[in-house]
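We modelled the chain as a single entity of 159 amino acids. Its sequence is:
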Amino acid sequence: MAEDQIAKKIETGGTSEQPTITQPETEIRPEQFVEQKIERVASKAETIKPAETPTAPVVRKAVATKTAQQLRDEQIDAILSDGLTDIYLSLSPKKQAEFRVGGEETVKKISGLLNQTKIKIKQIVDIIKRWLSIIPGINKFFLEQDAKIKAEKIIKLKN
């Protein structure tokens, strides 16, 4: 037994590891691999038996993917609503609904303007001012300043 181990060490160059084979014993062509794969898939398909009568309809879940337009609309909405939560909560429920609907329309209008190649910041400021004017008793200087700040952020979003 010891002689066999010594003979192996001599054959492998003094290491106890098995000699590595550099040439494959059989040559495998890519066509053979594809044919074998097709045969395996076909045999699996034969073993699967289709259901004779489905017990329940197949319901597929809708994958929630957002388009770039929807993402931009959400970002515009976030910019417009920034800092207005206290004001919104102080409004009456009727004014809140009007403010919310006006905000959604404002987002759509601004998004449409951003889709154009030439953006007119004055139009965006006017749209925001018109929307913010829904708030009763708002200071016109605050309105102007807030509309300009929000418009600048929206323009940065476009760039």
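As a brief sanity check on the tokenised model: Residues 68-158 form one domain. DSSP finds seven helices and no strands in the chain.
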